[in-house]
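Could you help me review a protein record that somebody else here produced? My question to you is simply how this chain folds and whether the tokens agree. Thanks in advance; the entry in question is below:
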Amino acid sequence: MDVTVKRLSSGKEWSLEDLLGRSMGRIKENPRKHFTIHPDGQALETMADLKPGSYASLDAALSEIETHTRGVCQMFGCRNGGNQAGSRSAHG
């Protein structure tokens, strides 16, 4: 299952959505360089065995999500504050 990742206005949270726009949860950074995954909605069952963190980077947290969803995280607006879209490979 592919996941859309969007940086929220706080700058320290990212929303997670499936490709239909349904919430799958959030990633939060608190304190600095400590990222935790907070699944919700449709993702509660999909990510039941996921380790919530703490992860040393956003990339590490996204890799954990990709492992459990067997998909790719598509990042929107997460790089340099723009509306760029980028994809991550589940294997590298």
